[in-house]
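Re: Re: ligand-bound prediction request (bumping)

Still looking for help on this. To restate: I need the protein modeled with zinc ion bound, output as structure tokens. Inputs repeated here so nobody has to scroll up.
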Amino acid sequence: MTEPGPAAIRLAPGLWQAMVEHALRERPLEACGLLAGRGDRAYAFYPTRNAARSPTRYDIDPQDLLRVTLELEARGEEVWGIFHSHPATPAYPSRTDVRLAFYPSAFYLICSTADPTRPVLRAFRIVDGAVSEVAVHAEDGGAGGRGSPPASPRPSAGGSP
Ligand SMILES: [Zn+2]
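Reply:
Sorry for the wait, this slipped through. Here it is.
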């Protein structure tokens, strides 16, 4: 079986941060959302409600799913990526995630907030039950491909002028 799609994806500036913040905000529930993109690059993130309101699974709110799908269809696009968070477990597809991966052409992005001070974002393709990881590069350096948080600006206090 050939590996489908690119080995790495790129996130437009601000997307890494937007996904991580959504995940942290929804904690301890799983957060979810959708991504718009072209080719190997995501250009927009749509946070959605988790209809399951569960700490261990997600169910993208049907109204949100419809709204985003229609918006993308109007531009001749499809859902590019599906995002959700793992509040207490690693950023890797669970058995349920694999079983319910109905979009073989989509990228599945998972953010672990098990350590909320060090959120980890990883991306995967899930095709016919097979999981393959895709590297994530944030164009603003957000993830640095390693899922580490963006470097925060150093406080200007202290130091000589
Ligand atoms: Zn999951």
